[in-house]
Amino acid sequence: MNNIAFSSWNGKVIDNRKGKASKATDIKIPAFPKGEKISAMMGWNGLVVKDGKADVLSLTLGYLREARKISCGECSVCMIGIDRLLDILKNIADGKGNAADLKEMQSIVKQVSANSKCSFGQSALFPVLDALKYYRADFLALVKGEKKIQKKDYAKAVTAPCMDACPAGLDIPGYIELIRNNKPLDSLDLIREKCVLPGVIGRVCTHPCEDACVRKDIDEPLAIRLLKRAVSDADLAEGGSALKSPASERDEKIAIIGAGPAGLAAAYNLRTMGYGVTLFESLPHAGGMASVGIPDYRLPADILDHEINLVRRTGVEIKLNAKVDSLSFKELKKEGYAAVFVAVGAHRGNMMGIEGEDEGYEGYVDGVDLLRDLNLGKKIEPRKKIVIVGGGNVALDCARSCARLGFKDVNILYRRSRVEMPASNEEIEGALEEGITITYLAVPVKILEKDRKVTGVECVKMKLGKPDESGRRRPIPVKGSEYTLKTNVVVAAIGQQPALPLSKGKEKIDVTTWGTIKIDPATFMTNVAGVFAGGDCVTGPATLIEALDMGNRVARSIDAFITGQDITEEISFADVDLKKQRGRGFVVNEPAKEVECMAVTKRLEGFDEVEGGLGPALAMEEAGRCLRCYRVVVWE
CA-CA 20 to 30 A from 507: which of 238, 275, 489, 605? Predict the structure, then answer.
């Protein structure tokens, strides 16, 4: 932010109020919606004033009011302190204050920061201290009656390092706090506001929130994913509570093509708004890749079925075995659908680009097809040796599933090192524990066969060069390093692409060179009016929580399209280090609570779930480790 009047962001003071012309290009503050002109902002990490005429008194009052909403009152220090600050400001504004009140305000801020038990209380009031120090003249003028606090409404945002890292923006400190206070059902309701599949996501989410957790730099990150699962499991054990029903019904109907996480999330959100919703699914089971792409040992089918049925019971119609390739947007609109959401998943595996893979040899299998066949109950005969090519979770799921099916020698080939491997660390460790071999820095170049049956693969060793566009070091073939690996089966698991529904003429949807659907990034609408798209068919293969988030956002966009409203852009914290705070009290080291996993000797006997969950008591203990790292920002 250039040409500012004043900034104390990150504790670095830049004061241009006396005519200086220094710039503040290194100030990393939240990104506000495009076109929104910011005159002043107050947040957990300081005060930024761009317009010298901005009313810092009013801004301080607005910030304290928002901070008060976050104060939980459990340690009482923060809540009492903010209440007292608000009372003092009111007294001063009413002409009942004096200069000594300003000293008391400074003392309160310091005492709250020093004695609060959570990260929010320790850091939230520092910008108030900055305002009192650097805009003292304004506060003195208020005391003398020479100034008044202007009545203003301020825009506001609340986040946390974990919330900002979560693709769906779940209120993670909020639902964890409810668990700590033994309110699991309230916690589940809060989770469901943005995550309609908590039992699923609580098992298979890649949990970027935990990588962003402040405790990660102190001892261990909170078990955020497992806490989400804990309240879902506790609810299911009691019979399973229903999802929220629409308060009123609307006349418009919405068609959704694809019943994966994106489609289910959109369906539920639209249904709560009162729309009639029909999901068209080509498979015999709803759930998308969550249903046919994740093995039961990671995600038991009954958990997914339960959460799909909850969505169905709100009034969402799900049509299975639908011929989505032949669905006409024009015909759907004739049938009364006011909008269409294309939410098909990435169910088609990528080709490896090696000799022999397109010859139809017996024993050459696509990883996505293998997992789909397995989840749909098709019998898969185990062979002696199998090679899986790839380094993502699909490759790991294929390998671990084949070990359970009875394949004796399971080998994963990955062209980079473990450092660059995109699969989750839990999956990699699980595979190694189960006796699966992972060969790094190797890539197949030719399928070997006899009588049109796979007998092996010719491979080349690799070395790592400079980072490529993905940020990972580029694999480079080692000259003269060719070798042969005998195997009965080769599984290609190097990525997927969406199988888009056919569209012709005026209905033809524009696609990118990557084979994904082009959309307006603000509205998610395609080039065809009233037709929206989201999930893997737009982003390419992504995580379940990312697909679910797009479903949430598309639902809001469809509602805005039908009602004639504008989409409201949200503040972004993408370039801000949310872990930074100018004060933190003492935190006792306390490792995360561990869950029991099935013994390795038992795992390969079937597809029973491997990972255990946190019981109610243990979940409350783990929730108690949360530092409540809320970050509040107000601006005008």
Answer: 275
